[in-house]
Amino acid sequence: MYMTATILDGRALAEELRTELRADVDAFMAHYQTVPQLAVVQVQGDAASDRYVRNIRKLCSTMGMQFHLTHLPPDVTQAILDNAIQQLSNDAAVHGVLIQMPLPAPLSAEQAVMHLDYRKDVDGIHPISAGLIAQGRLALVPNTPAGGMELLRRYGIPIAGKRAAVVGRSAVVGRPMAALLLHANATVTICHSHTHDLTSVLRECDIVAVAAGRPALVTGAMLRPGAVVIDFGINVQPDGSIVGDVEFTSAVAVASAITPVPGGTGPVTNVMLLRSVLTTARNQLSLQEP
Ligand code: NDP
């Protein structure tokens, strides 16, 4: 029994990553005489989304990056949304484009994303990005799983040869996390709502990553002693507090390392987004070099 699991501290890592990124942005600007720019397309009407966009704007300013917001009314048509994305895709001063999800019905995210230049897909949601990730050709990776992998790497957690389970198979978290673990040479099982006997799968795994959106879906009793646990869940409780998908109090007594919620994977995600903007900016500018 591990009584002293290492807490994988996302806030501390995010701070470290911000310091590194700020230096990288400065070096980029000195070399290219260009400020990296992120454009966000947001359809109004979602308070959580407003909060997220405010945080991104603030972080861009701290990192010395430019931020542009296209704020569309809640009743915007698909054609206007698609056109806004297309224009930003064609704008050479914009290096990364983020389509803020969720889009209200009846807007189609699948259709909108087809108007995004995949080379500016800083959220890793374009089918070309997803296809490249699935083929093990890591290009632009969704930020949440990229942050989970960064936590594993920075804490020196061995991945190659380990058995890993990912609970959840969404296009933005579960699937790319499974692909990234596979790329890092883990043996990966993907679990979802049809999985029989989740416990028997998890009990075999050295690394367990959970992105299901279900509070306390995974408890300590379901884990192999010494497992490393990455909890992506963000669940707002009736009292306004936030909990993950893993029951922290029981899991921390069994795991060898675990992300808390809040303060685990969440804080790392935004920095990974801005890191992707710098990557896309570099990719675009280096093409113009003689
Ligand atoms: P989705 O709702 O898109 O996907 C949830 C997945 O969990 C589905 O694949 C679903 O299976 C699976 N699932 C649901 N219930 C169970 C169950 N009882 N047993 C096993 N699998 C189950 O969610 P997201 O991937 O978008 O998000 C997951 C969580 O991560 C949420 O809490 C979200 O808030 C959080 N999140 C965190 C971020 C961060 O920065 N840390 C960023 C984005 C999301 P099936 O496919 O069969 O339906």
Briefly, what is this?
This protein is an alpha/beta fold and 290 residues long. Helix content is 41%, strand content 15%. The termini are far apart.
Structural class: alpha/beta
Oligomer: single chain
Helical stretch tally:
10
Shape: globular
From the N-terminal CA to the C-terminal CA, the straight-line distance is 59 Å
Share of residues in strands: 15-25%
Unreliable spans are none
Look at the structure and name the CATH superfamily of the largest domain: NAD(P)-binding Rossmann-like Domain
Q: Which architecture of the largest domain per CATH?
A: 3-Layer(aba) Sandwich
Question: What letter string, H or E per element, gives the SSE order?
Answer: EHEHEHEHHHEHEHEEEEHEH
Small molecules in complex: NADPH dihydro-nicotinamide-adenine-dinucleotide phosphate
CATH topology of the largest domain: Rossmann fold
What is the number of E strands? 11
What is the C-alpha radius of gyration, as a whole number of Å? 19 Å
Task: Report strand order across the widest sheet.
Answer: 1-11-8-7-5-6
**If you average the pLDDT, what whole number results?**
96
Domain count: the total is: 2
Major sheet: 6 strands, parallel
Share of helical residues: 40-55%
Query: Regarding CATH, which class of the largest domain?
Result: Alpha Beta
Structure commentary:
The chain has 290 residues and is of the alpha/beta class. It folds into 2 domains: 35-118, Rossmann fold (3-Layer(aba) Sandwich), CATH 3.40.50.10860; 142-266, 3-Layer(aba) Sandwich (Rossmann fold). It has 10 helices and 11 strands. Strands 1-11-8-7-5-6 form a 6-stranded parallel sheet. Strands 3-2-4 form a 3-stranded parallel sheet, with helices on both faces. A hairpin with a 5-residue loop joins strand 9 and strand 10 (242-243). It is globular and about 55 Å long. The termini are far apart. It binds NADPH dihydro-nicotinamide-adenine-dinucleotide phosphate.
